[in-house]
Structure formats: structure tokens, C-alpha cells
Amino acid sequence: MFDGLAFLKMHGAGNDFVVLDARAHAVSLTQSQAALLADRRRGIGCDQIILIEPAVDADATMRILNADGSESGACGNATRCVAALLAAETGARHLSIRTIAGLLSAEIKGPNLVEVDMGEPSFEWSAIPLLEPMDTLSLRLAMGPVEKPAACSMGNPHATFFVDDLQHLQVESIGPALERARIFPERANIGFARIDAPDQIRLRVWERGAGLTLACGSGACAALVNAHRRGLTHRRAVVEMDGGSLTITWRSDNHVLLEGPVASIFAGHLADDFCPL
Questions:
Q1: Residue 139: which residues within 8 A CB-CB, separation 6 or more?
Q2: What is the DSSP pairing of strand 60-66 with strand 94-99?
Q3: Alpha carbons 277 and 141: distance in angstroms, whole number
Q4: Count of CB atoms within 10 A of residue 62's CB?
Q5: Shortest CA distance to 162 belongs to which of 209, 229, 218?
Q6: CB neighbourhood size of 69 (10 A)
């Protein structure tokens, strides 16, 4: 099926990816093939599959496929990983990456440390999108012990619940239902944030199409933005996630910066006869 396809396994703060270089030779994956590659028992295993493709107005184009094979509009940690790969090839410190959510710029800040400009958040109900007009600072949504999240788009839909007790919150139980709540016509990424200080957030994210991940870059951006909108934090904070820490800055020009570590794990080729059992 995959004819010895070459891949690189990477992660950003534990958010892991299978990266496929499709610049010289096109790589076409069906949704079921992508889901197979992402399977942690029958495939390589990852949160998202990343396709690096040619671009005419950027250093590369990046496509993002979730673990269930669906396509995502934005992934901050994957963008940082791709920027690190491109920088290793060219020696450039400033890079631009085309995504379906827009053109993103990245900067190499140090060894294995990359910052990406995630662009401007959107707060209009139709841009997130929501099913109908409502106050995006306090959605009419509740489940179990959580209620009234704030919502925004960071190139993909996010809802952030603010909680006092994150340790005992059953994210795996309520996350799937909240992701598919009726008010999210395109599903949503669901964040659960505890504010520890005006510059410190503890966050867990149930990602649309991927489930509970060790880190979510766009989710960390959304958590900081939504927390500041609620008056809970400054415009810059360290967001601690299960897999590591990310630094988020919401600049005065409305752009959101995401900074954090990246790492390459291993490279390989799939067996020529790799296929579903």
C-alpha cells in the first residue's frame, strides 16, 4: 500500500507527529490510510500526520491529518516541528509555512526551540464556528462539573473551560461528548484550564479527531487568549501541559505567539507490504 514510504517521527512537548516529505514526490493518503499510519498498535502511532508539500509563496506547505484521518486547519506544535526541519536544511532562522488556515511565520529561537506566529484569534460565532449566534465569552454549554466555556478560533475551533480541580476531572469521559456537542457543527478542541497565577496556566486538551494529547499548541494559545478575555491572566503566560511547557504571548497587535521545544525521535521506512490486518 505504501511502497516503503519514508517518514520522520517528531514531537513538540509530547504532541507527536509522523512527518512525510511530499515536496519531491506527491504523497496521497485516504482517510483510512492516514488513520492506519496514526494507529499506535498497527501503524507508527501519532497524534497527527504532517505532509510537507511545495509552496509558491512560502518555504513549504503543511497539511495536517488528525489521528482519525480527518484534516485539521492548524497545529502549532507541528508548525514548529516543520520549521525546525526546514531550518536544518537551509540554515534560515526565519521561515514561512503555508497552511489551509493561512500563512504562518516561524523563528528559530535556540537549539530545538521554535516560536511560531499563530496569527489573530477570531471571536465571532460564525468564524469559530458555532451553530448559532451566542456570546463566545460564555457559551451555553455544560457537562458534569464544567460549564460556560469561552470559545475562539485559532485556525481551528476551541472551547476552554476554566476549572479549579483539574487533577480529578475525567477528561477522557467528557471530552468526546463535548467535542461533538451540537453547538459545534465542525466539532471542536476542548480545553480544561486551571489558572495557577496571572502568568501560569495548567491545561489539558481533548483534541478534535485525536483525543487527549500530551500537548496542543493551538489549544494553549486559545487557553491564554480566553483566560485574558476573562480577566484571569496577563497577555503572556507559561502553559504547562502533560508533555511539557509552552510559552504563549498575545501581542498588542492581536497576533498570538507560541514558543516551545521540538525534537526528532527516529526516521524509517514502512515495509513494502505494510497494510491493515
A1: 130, 148, 149, 150, 151, 159, 183
A2: parallel
A3: 40
A4: 26
A5: 229
A6: 18
Burial class (CB in 10 A: 0-12, 13-18, 19+), 14: middle
Q: Which residues are catalytic?
A: 75, 216
CA dihedral 42, 44, 48, 54 (to 10 degrees): -130
CA 117 → CA 98, 138, 250, 259, distances in Å?
12, 26, 10, 9
For the entire predicted model, the pTM comes to: 0.94
Grid cell listed for 200: 501560569
Read off the C-alpha cell for 241.
501541559
For the chain, the domains span: 6-118+262-269, 142-254
Fold (topology level) of 142-254: Diaminopimelate Epimerase; Chain A, domain 1 (3.10.310)
Q: What is the mean pLDDT of the chain?
A: 95
Region 216-224: what's the mean pLDDT?
A: 97
Residue carrying C-alpha cell 480577566: 231
Q: Is it true that 6-118+262-269 and 142-254 share their CATH fold?
A: yes
Question: Do 247 and 77 touch, CB atoms closer than 8 A?
Answer: no
How confident is the model at residue 273, as a pLDDT? 80
Read off the C-alpha cell for 107: 523563528
**Domain 6-118+262-269 is found in CATH 3.10.310.10:** yes
The cell for 99 is: 497552511
Least confident range from 101-105, 172-176, 230-234: namely: 101-105
Terminal CA-CA length for the chain = 12
Residue that has been written with the C-alpha cell 511565520 in this structure: 105
Task: Please name the residues in contact with 206: beta carbons below 8 A apart, sequence gap of 6 or more.
Answer: 171, 172, 175, 176, 178, 179, 189, 190, 191, 192, 212
